[in-house]
Amino acid sequence: MSAATFALAGNPNSGKTTLFNSLTGGNQHVGNYPGVTVEKKEGYCLYKGQKIKIVDIPGTYSLTAYSLEEKVARDFLVNEKPNAVIDIIDASNLERNLYLTLQFMEMGVPVILALNMIDVAKKRGVHINTEKLSQLFGVPVVTTVARRGEGKEELLAAVAETLDSQIATQELNISYGHDIDNALKEMEREILDKDFLTETYKARWTALKYLENDQQIKSLGQQEDASLSEKLEAIVRNVTDHLNVTLGCYPEAVIADHRYGFIKSILQQNVLTVNYDINRLYLSDKIDKILTNKFIGPLVMLSVIWGLYQFTFTYSEMPVGWFESFFGWLGGIADTYMPDGMVKSLVISGIIDGVGGVLGFVPLIMFMFFGISFIEDSGYMARMAFMLDRIFRIFGLHGSSVMPFIVSGGIAGGCAVPGVMATRTLKSPRERLATLLTVPFMNCGAKLPVFALLVAAFFTAKQALVMFLITIGAWVGALLVARLLRSTVIKGESTPFVMELPPYRMPTLKGVLIHTWNRTWQYIKKAGTVILGISIVLWAFMTFPGLPQTKLAQYESERQAFLNANQAINADLESSLSPVELSPAAIHLQKKLNELSAAEAQEALQYSFAGRLGQALEPVSRFAGFDWRTNIALVGGFAAKEVVVSTLGTAYSLGEIDPEATDSLGEKLAASPNWSPLTAAALIIFIMFYSPCFVTVVCIAREAGSWKWGLFSMALNTLLASMLAISVFQVGRLLGF
To answer: Which of 718, 507, 509 is nearest to 624 (CA)?
Structure first.
């Protein structure tokens, strides 16, 4: 059965993705800050035997390709040609939302209007005559409350009716005033005469895009017919010069004004009635007077972050212990039943201790994401971005930089890759470059297991406080580096910032759990694929080439000599079924044999490819308190930061004194003479700031348009991390820590 395709479109924060989940049962993340949907998502639903494909395209305010969201949305409509667009409208903000509707209709795309959050509109005294609105626009109009599933059946009925009737929406030909109308007619005539881009776009719409200075359309025009494109641009220049002289503005502003004027004329025809007290503040406004106050707001924000970490560590401690015990038990089972050899080493040291070290933090990650999802869905995340804008301007960044920082892990648990890609929405090249070079400093989800491991092992009594300080430290470091970059290699003035604050909403348990699971599942999948592969490769680097035969023979000779010298005790050891039955002499012999095996494993690890690299770096790294095994983990972290945990797990598993010990990695580190709280603090600082993972470096190079910026990021971050880690460790030693 072929499926009809409908695009789900609308402004950010209109409830578009919530409606998508309601219609399709899809589990896409729902957030309350602009630009949450970077890629299109699709799902299917069945209505009266008709299979319907729903595509959730990015939230956008316009179809002029100024931002990534606008370009993706428009390209889908042009290239995929859906049967119709389901335009999700925030019913409490009808005038602004209808601006996008006009642009759909100007493209000649069939439209179904879904007036969402109608319950909020009614509470605010907003009453909409949907029949009149449908009549004036000539499109179906349905009211919905997406988060409660209200209006879903009516919307699907409108979709089915659109398929049955096959009636396309009529194109709107809005008058934009004498000057622009004349220019449009002249340009439209030229376009039709030469069939200029007419296979893809309507002639009038193409002319409008030239007047709106749409770079994508102008670029396509140059490729299609450079001569005609230049002629159209000459017409635009003439009307622009005339408008500058007579009105003091550009064509884009005049077009926007006339669109809003058209919308107002529609709404004034008994479509919209608003009954409210002019002195009344809505609940969101009342809350914002406190939460966004320049004095109280930052204190509340810091308290929320503190509470997030307190909640995470308090409630995840027990399940994390269960996971650690499980992987310890699993390693013991493998050690008992698998024959000695390379495969056993791979399974225990490479897979169980490597991947298990990362998966052991699944409960902590889950609780962290639960808290973050609650903050996002409540609408408070956007307020945090709003307050941070005041700080960002001081450091030469744009307010729009807040979102890439938060997406990258500004609160915790994000990823620098989408954070770097999110910088596309910044229009200033300098601010964009400064942002994409500093977002990797945020505490992404890959760094969290490393921090959680070290904090739990060395700062047990103050876990929430230390994680809170790590978050603040990441922000402070990123902003200071941004200020340095904006004052030296990326000079320029900051541009102003305007951001929409969505209304506060009570998050639903179902929604928060869906978001939590989606993010946790991504973490688990990464551990089962990327981290597993890297762990196996690093295990091989830490295992091969193996000790020379002369060394192996030397250890075997020492072992046999020791056993021969203690033949009677060895017989007692071999005949005993339980350690309880052993004599003190036999226990001493077993301990000596274990120490000899551990010395052999330790030397084999040092002799391996990874061990040699770690030792080569140790003359420098020891100033920060890092031994060669830590160096191996940090080198692995260039591939993915989670690998730091798995590599430490493998390194300490290969070289542990008691091969049958089931201690967790944290316990092994805490018991190691090479580790201390000061060493852990220096390593935390280093991991906070050192080179982004390889995928992020590639993204930086691609987004910046040059590999030099990707390499610059690696060099700058690693140099900064080294200086800070060495300073912390050396100053700490001087102070007696």
So the answer is: 718
Other Cβ atoms closer than 10 A to 509: 8
What average pLDDT does the segment 542-547 reach? 84
- For residue 86, the cross-strand partners are 8, 112
Q: Is 55 helix (H, G, I), strand (E, B) or coil?
A: strand
Q: Are 641 and 688 in contact (CB under 8 A)?
A: no
- Going by C-alpha positions, the residue among 124, 63, 537 that lies closest to residue 346 is 537
Q: Catalogue the long-range contacts made by 50-54 (C-beta closer than 8 Å, 24 or more residues apart).
A: 50/4, 50/160, 50/163, 51/1, 51/2, 51/3, 51/4, 52/3, 52/4, 52/6, 52/156, 52/159, 53/3, 53/4, 53/5, 53/6, 54/6, 54/8, 54/20, 54/23, 54/24, 54/86
Q: What's the distance, Cα to Cα, between the start and end of the chain in Å?
A: 71
Q: What is the DSSP letter of 57?
A: P
Q: Which two tokens stand for residue 564?
A: 């021969």
Residue 364: which of 463, 462, 459, 442 has the closest Cα?
Answer: 463
pLDDT tens for 188-244 read 999 999 899 888 888 998 999 999 888 888 988 999 999 999 999 999 999 999 888
Q: How far is CA 597 from CA 168, 336, 530, 547, 663, in A?
A: 79, 17, 32, 13, 18
Q: ω before 584 within 30° of 0 (cis)? A: no
Comparing 4-165 with 178-274, is the CATH topology the same? no
Residue with tokens 């972290």: 637
Helix, strand or coil, per DSSP, at residue 150 = strand
Token pair of 478, please?
Answer: 């990123």
SS3 of residue 10 by DSSP: strand
- Residue 562: enclosing H or E segment and its boundaries? helix 549-565
Question: Per-residue pLDDT tens for 601-611?
Answer: 778 888 888 88
3-state SS, residue 272: strand
Residue 174's Cα: distance from chain center in Å? 40
Q: What is the DSSP secondary-structure string of 656-719?
A: -S-TT----HHHHHHH-TT--HHHHHHHHHHHHHS---HHHHHHHHHHHTSHHHHHHHHHHHHH
- For residue 154, give the DSSP letter: H
* Domain extents in the chain: 4-165, 178-274
**How confident is the model over 81-137, as pLDDT tens digits?**
888 999 999 998 888 899 999 999 988 889 999 999 998 888 888 889 999 999 888
Helices (H), 459-508: 463-487
Q: Which of 395-409, 439-453, 622-636 has the lowest mean pLDDT?
A: 395-409
Map residue 24 onto helix, strand or coil: helix
CATH no. of 178-274: 1.10.287
User: Could you give the CA distance from residue 527 to residue 643 in angstroms, rounded to a whole number?
Assistant: 9
Categorise residue 443: left if φ over 0, alpha if ψ from -120 to 50, beta otherwise: beta
Residues in the chain: 737
Mean pLDDT of the chain: 83
Q: Bigger pLDDT: 299 or 649? A: 299
- Per the listing, tokens 């009453």 go with 127
Average pLDDT (286-302) is: 88
**617 contacts: CB under 8 Å, gap ≥ 6:** 628, 631, 635
Q: Does domain 4-165 have CATH number 3.40.50.300?
A: yes
C-alpha–C-alpha distance, residues 513 and 516, integer Å: 5
Range among 21-30, 63-72, 486-495 rated most confident:
486-495
Cβ atoms of 442 and 405 closer than 8 Å = yes
